[in-house]
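cache lookup: miss for this entity combination. No prior model stored, computing from scratch. Input as submitted by user K.M.:
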Amino acid sequence: MSDLTHSSFREQDGARSCDKVSVDRIHNRFQLRCGCEVGRQRRLCSHKLGVVLGEAAPFAGSREQLTSLLEIISLTPIPDAARQLVHLKAEREFLNQEIENQVEFLNALLEDVEVS
Ligand SMILES: [Zn+2]
């Protein structure tokens, strides 16, 4: 297994290389970077989130490097934080849908008010 020690690997395939997540590691500190618009602002983008959740597609390195990265990350609070974020986003989506339904329901009531 390749390790990430002192590694700094960038995109290995040419396709959409700007949206790939790379890792810079020096000793026990590392940084995930992504070249997409959000990532360039050093904010969390879907690519970085995908990688910490184990997705290979947005990752610039090899499978072995991803496995190595995930092993390291598993010792940190990152996986829990990432899963919690995914959970909250799903909850928000559900609530947004519920709000939309409720707006339509109330609007329909207001279109045809009947008092008995
Ligand atoms: Zn990105």
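stored under new cache key. The pocket of zinc ion is lined by residues 19, 34, 36, 38-39, 45, 47-48 (CB under 6 Å).
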